[in-house]
Amino acid sequence: MGQAHGYDHAPLIARLGFALLVASLGWGASVAAARTGTGNADLGNRLGAALHAKGIGPARTGAMALDLASGRVVFAHNSAVGFVPASNEKLPVTYTALKVLGPTFRFPTEVRGQGSLGTDGTWAGNLVLKGYGDPTLSTARLRILADRVHRLGITRVTGMVIGDESFFDKLRTAPGWKASFYIVDRAWTGKAYTTTPAYTAADTFRKLLIKAGVAVAGKTRSFQAGGKVLAVTVSKPLDEVLHAVDADSDNFSAELLLKELGAVAGDGGTSSDGAAVVRRVLAQNGVPLEGVTIADGSGLSSLDRLTPQALVAILRQCWADGALRGTLVQAMAVAGRSGTLEHRLLGPGTRGTVVGKTGTTDLASVLSGFVHRRYAFAVMENGKPVQWWTARAAQDRFVQLLAAAS
């Protein structure tokens, strides 16, 4: 699962040995006693001033910035306080997936056979489409599976086509979600959504079998089934899947990834089992867990809590690991160019040189990431509701100051 990289379970700023005063009622005592070395005003003071946002007081704001080269904390305010993270919840899930599964991991989808193949090309029995959580499974990939079945010499199936989704549980919600939140699976046409993914995928596969020259006598069903593996298709590598999770902030892929972690490295394919794996891996790698609650994978849950220091610790861990660094940076949105940062931080000092993870819900506006390969940062703002437009302006000012100091 990975070893600790110089951290213990104490708060990050204490581990780094800096005497930082964290104030919840004002900004003045929140900054690290650090100078830029350029003769300019104290960077920490200016970062604190940048966080002033109308309607969002200091107690509802947490932030941290760390110099990646020296390990020096240049700013911290409420850095050990748990805030609702919105889609920044995807960062600990991404980090854990990279540590547990690895960037080259691929999600398989299998065709299994219950029965036997006769000399006349008749499969006496059922075919089973068994999924393993691939968020990118498409009609094109199902067509490939149908063609592979036909190439096995099968021209007729006497039984049914069964969709088996038993690798995960069947829950489409997570603790702390609004009643209106319901993760539905993308239909295999890519044009709609379905609340019965196993049946929908199996029925699409059945139709594609017929088009491929395999007659199917039975109907489509969905339930847990066995059988021997006849054909397999796999997804693109995890490092490519993560671009949708982080740059585009895809909730569907994030929730499936959390369940994948539970199924592969935990006690089962559930959100709670996946969350337990995330906490375990974060702890094993020295990410401070005080104030941290993992309730889902996407950040839709109002129960999720992350701290600025936890986010910065995750970013620093990835930066220190050459293999993880490139993967995470490529997965994140790029200021002024891609993902959820395409229309933000458009100035010459930030466009293309800031990569980050955004997060926005009614309760939270969050931005974390890297500036100029120099700083790791996190800015978290909460409210009931949060004024996201002023929050984003404060986040952008914070990042612009770090870029100017790089």
The biggest beta sheet is recorded as: 7 strands, mixed
Helix content: 25-40%
Gyration radius from CA atoms, angstroms: 24 Å
Count of folded domains = 2
Net shape = elongated
CATH architecture title of the largest domain: 3-Layer(aba) Sandwich
CATH H-level superfamily title of the largest domain: DD-peptidase/beta-lactamase superfamily
Terminal Cα separation, in Å?
34 Å
The total count of strands amounts to: 15
Please count the helical segments: 11
Query: In percent terms, what proportion of residues is strand?
Result: 15-25%
* Chain-averaged pLDDT: 89
Please provide a written account of the structure:
The N terminus is likely disordered. The protein is an alpha/beta fold. 50% of the residues are buried. It contains eleven helices and 15 strands. Strands 3, 4, 5, 6, 9, 10 and 11 form a seven-stranded mixed sheet that branches. It has a six-stranded antiparallel sheet with strand order 2-1-15-14-13-12, with helices on both faces. Strands 7-8 form a two-stranded antiparallel ribbon. A hairpin with a 4-residue loop joins β3 and β4. The chain folds into two domains: 258 residues, 3-Layer(aba) Sandwich (Beta-lactamase), CATH 3.40.710; 128 residues, D-Ala-D-Ala carboxypeptidase C, peptidase S13 (D-tyrosyl-trna(Tyr) Deacylase, Chain: A), CATH 3.50.80. α3 runs antiparallel to α6, α3 packs across α7 and α3 packs across α8.
